[in-house]
Input
Amino acid sequence: MTRAHTPTSQPVLVSRFVTGTITLMSVLIVYDGWQRLRLLDAVAVIVGPVLAMFLSHVFAATLAWQVETGRRATGRERVQMVGAESRFLLIGAPPLAVLTACTLLDVSLTDSIRAVTFMGALSLGYWGGVAGRRAGLTGWRLAMAVLAGLVLGTLVLALQVVLQPGQVASGGML
Output
C-alpha cells in the first residue's frame, strides 16, 4: 500500500485531529435538546459522529486505493487501511473524558457539553502550537500559530450564534 492510504506521518494525523475536532464541535453546537438527555445519550451524540468520520475515512481510503491501483483491495490491505484509520477514533477520547469528569463533579449535562466544546476550541490552539513547533517556529511566530488555532476555535463556537441565535440569547450553549 502507498503512504497516502496508510497515514503514518504526524502531519496527516494532526490534520485528521483538527478536522475531526471541528466537525465534532459543530455537531455538539448545533445539537438541540441537551437538557432532555442522560449521560449515555450524550455519549452516543459524541461517539456517533466520531464513528461516522472513521467509517468515512476507511471508505475513502478504500476508494482511493481502487482508483490508484485499478483493483480492489485484498483483505489484508483492507485490514491495514482500517488499522491506519483507527487512530482517528481517538478524537472521541478527550470529549468523553471531559464529559465524564464533569458528570463526576455533578455538573449539568448542558454545562458539561459547553465545557467539551470550549475544550475543543482550546485543543485547536494546542494543535496550532504542535504544528508550529514541528515547523521550527519559536517566539512570537509560535504564539501566532497557537493564536490561529484559538481564533479558529472561537469562530467555530461563534457558529452557534448564527445557527441558534434564540438559544444563545436565552442562555444556551455559549
